[in-house]
Write a structure and sequence with these properties.
Layout (H helix, E strand, L loop, with lengths): L3 H7 L18 E2 L6 H11 L13 H22 L3 H27 L7 H11 L8 H13 L13 H6 L3 H9 L1 H12 L6 H21 L1 H14 L7 H5 L12 E2 L13 H6 L8 H7 L9 E2 L2 H10 L9 E2 L2 H13 L24
Parallel strand pairs: 1-4, 2-3
Length: 370
């Protein structure tokens, strides 16, 4: 039996013609409809209005964020002063440092949706704080682009989560895809600045100033080895690392008729349940700690969707599946997306009313200054 949830996600990919050609593509999947999650949200809430009770921040999440930063800074101190072996240094940077820095990046994502504190300013400040071990200022810039990823999922130019045509044309050989995964942090960090550049905001300046001051202090007081450990942790953790599987898992089309995918595996415990990605796009105002409850309350909307249980296998399959490339993504023009949204507005489906407003899940694509 195909559930209503599966049908809605299926509508994101044409059921005939190009939809059968998942591999060896020369272009993205182009869709005329808007992204599917607004439709799903209304259908799910109609069947399960009690899900509304899950909305709002989870203040307990802040303790996890402090733990991620504390573990990473403590590890940085230990490896700087007590680890002589280069091999052991690298292993620790990969296993502990990489995991903690990726967890810090996911913590920024949680703060971006204002899901840690009621007041937006506190979410902004904790995002800047948890950014510190990553060594590069990313929190405030990510916030601006990520808002657009939700409002305009798959929209050409605006959603910079999607690779460029140059990447799709060239990242085809397993070795090049291996390099792609190894340098994922660079691709995701640089692509928005090229595809959809924006004028820096005051908060981005604050983020950068705070970050580089922290980096200087680490270098000055603990030396270059300490700073190198943090930089290496970011490169490894957001590159060829099991946690990076979510970059591919979330929206790469690997199953005909589905635009977004979830991961239900053990790494969710240190990644704030970011693997529950269909659930997250359906309800961005629900914190990661409560996303498993969404699936439990409304199983008919999730159980029949294709999902993953191993991020390592996701990465392996991307690299070694012949014909799987960055073109395995769905795109839509802004004109088609906006037209579809206007039709939904006439039917009473307000755009992102579950993610808008200060203190809620998200603001508009160009958020207001706090």
């Amino acid at each position: 039996m195909v559930t209503e949830g599966a049908k809605i996600l299926a509508s994101a990919v044409p059921s005939q013609g190009e939809a059968t050609n998942l591999l060896h593509r020369d272009d993205f999947f182009w869709e005329n409809a808007d992204e599917p999650h607004l439709r799903r949200k209304y259908d799910i809430l109609k069947a399960h209005p009690e899900i509304m009770k899950l909305f709002g921040p989870d203040p307990n999440t802040k303790y996890k964020l402090f733990a991620f930063v504390a573990v990473q800074i403590l590890t940085c101190y230990i490896v700087t002063h007590y680890v002589e072996s280069n091999l052991l240094f690298f292993i620790i940077a990969y296993v502990i440092g990489g995991t903690m820095n990726h967890s810090c990046s996911i913590s920024i994502h949680e703060a971006t949706h204002n899901l840690i504190f009621e007041k937006q300013i506190y979410n902004t400040l904790i995002a800047i704080f948890v950014n510190l071990p990553i060594t590069l200022p990313a929190a405030m810039t990510f916030k601006r682009y990520h808002h657009e990823h939700h409002q305009y999922q798959g929209v050409d130019v605006i959603d910079t989560d999607i690779a460029t045509k140059i990447e799709g044309d060239n990242l085809r050989h397993p070795f090049l895809k291996f390099l792609n995964v190894m340098c994922l942090s660079m691709f995701y960090g640089v692509r928005p600045l090229i595809v959809n550049p924006k004028t820096p905001t005051l908060w981005e300046v604050v983020n950068s100033t705070t970050q580089f001051t922290f980096d200087f202090c680490i270098y000055y007081f603990w030396g270059p080895k300490a700073l190198f450990y943090l930089v290496l942790s970011t490169f490894l953790g957001l590159g060829l690392h099991p946690c990076s599987g979510h970059f591919i898992q979330e929206h790469f089309v690997t199953n005909q008729g589905q635009e977004t995918y979830s991961y239900y595996g053990p790494l969710n415990y240190v990644m704030l349940n970011v693997g529950y990605h269909v659930e997250h796009h359906d309800f961005p105002r629900i914190p990661g700690s409560r996303l498993p409850l969404v699936k439990k309350i409304a199983p008919e909307f999730y159980d029949n969707l294709h999902h993953y249980t191993s991020w390592t296998k996701v990465i392996f399959d991307y690299i070694f599946t012949d014909g799987m490339t960055p073109f395995n993504r769905i795109k839509r023009t802004k004109e088609n997306h906006d037209a579809a949204r206007r039709r939904r507005t006439k039917r009473g489906q307000k755009e992102h009313d579950c993610v808008g407003g200060a203190g809620d899940g998200m603001q508009s694509s160009e958020e207001k200054n706090e």
